[in-house]
Structures are given as C-alpha cells and as structure tokens.
C-alpha cells in the first residue's frame, strides 16, 4: 500500500544512489536527500498525510512568530525560543497538543530529532529533509518516518 505513495508517478528515474523505503527503491540524485530537485516532489502523494509537517513548516516559516519559533542557523532545524508563549497563544492546538511535552513527543514520532546543546532553555529540532525553502521534501520525510515506525513494529 505504501509503495504506491512512495513512487512519484511522473518523476523520471534519476541515475544515482537509491533509498530503500518499505522495500521500494526510490531514485535520488545522491545519498544526500537535500539535493533533491522539484522533479522528485510527489504530486500524487495525499496531502492529508502531510498536514502535521505542513503545519510545522508554516509555523516555523511565518515571520510573525520568529520571537517564539523560527528557523535555526543552518536552516535545517527550528528553535523554540519561548515555550510559554507557544502554549499561551494556543499555537499547539493546531497540532492537537495541549502541552509542550505532547508536541515534542509528536515531533519525535514524525521523524524530528532533538538537537543537543541548545542554551537558555531553548529547544531545537531538526531533520535533514526539513529545510527552509524546500517544502517539497516533506513527503519524503513523512515516508521515511513512517517506514521507520513500521520496521520498529516488526
């Protein structure tokens, strides 16, 4: 079932390294998924599966929330600067979370990794496919996180 969604219907095969997802090989330009082009964006991938990722991306990318949550220095992570304000403005409700702990748990479940070394009580999370200016990689991030969860159950 997942194989149908993992293979972009209109994407041409790009010679290079291969990623294995749920037993399906997906062509990429290199082993670094950050170099994927728009050609690998999956137009047939159901948007309903990407709502969480889209919402996180929109929140982080919104300049109005930069004092609360914004992109990290590398543009491959995001920093929660003010946890109290994030909760106080009910921003977590769009993720069906009431506490910061629930939100962190969902982030980890969806493939985000907590980046250690943040100072001053700030939280930083990242994923090499969560990149500023490249929302087309979100479907791949979802597919890989889903595959990891499925493998963990086996």
From TrEMBL:
<keyword id="KW-0539">Nucleus</keyword>
<keyword id="KW-0238">DNA-binding</keyword>
<dbReference type="GO" id="GO:0005634">
    <property type="term" value="C:nucleus"/>
</dbReference>
<dbReference type="Pfam" id="PF00447">
    <property type="entry name" value="HSF_DNA-bind"/>
</dbReference>
<feature type="domain" description="HSF-type DNA-binding">
    <location>
        <begin position="48"/>
        <end position="144"/>
    </location>
</feature>
<dbReference type="InterPro" id="IPR036388">
    <property type="entry name" value="WH-like_DNA-bd_sf"/>
</dbReference>
<dbReference type="GO" id="GO:0003677">
    <property type="term" value="F:DNA binding"/>
</dbReference>
<comment type="similarity">
    <text>Belongs to the HSF family.</text>
</comment>
<keyword id="KW-0346">Stress response</keyword>
<protein>
    <submittedName>
        <fullName>Heat stress transcription factor A-1</fullName>
    </submittedName>
</protein>
<dbReference type="InterPro" id="IPR000232">
    <property type="entry name" value="HSF_DNA-bd"/>
</dbReference>
<dbReference type="InterPro" id="IPR036390">
    <property type="entry name" value="WH_DNA-bd_sf"/>
</dbReference>
């Amino acid at each position: 079932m997942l194989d149908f969604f993992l293979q972009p219907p209109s994407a041409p095969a790009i010679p290079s390294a291969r990623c294995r997802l749920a037993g399906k090989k997906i062509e990429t330009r290199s082993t670094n998924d950050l170099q994927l082009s728009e050609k690998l964006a999956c137009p047939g991938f159901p948007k309903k599966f990407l709502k969480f990722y889209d919402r996180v991306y929109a929140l982080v990318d919104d300049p109005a929330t930069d004092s609360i949550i914004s992109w990290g220095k590398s543009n491959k992570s995001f920093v929660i600067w003010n946890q109290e304000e994030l909760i106080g403005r009910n921003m977590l409700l769009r993720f069906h979370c009431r506490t910061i702990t629930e939100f962190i748990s969902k982030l980890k479940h969806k493939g985000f990794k907590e980046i250690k070394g943040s100072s001053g009580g700030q939280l930083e999370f990242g994923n090499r496919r969560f990149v500023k200016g490249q929302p087309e990689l979100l479907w791949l991030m979802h597919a890989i996180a889903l595959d990891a969860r499925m493998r963990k159950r086996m």
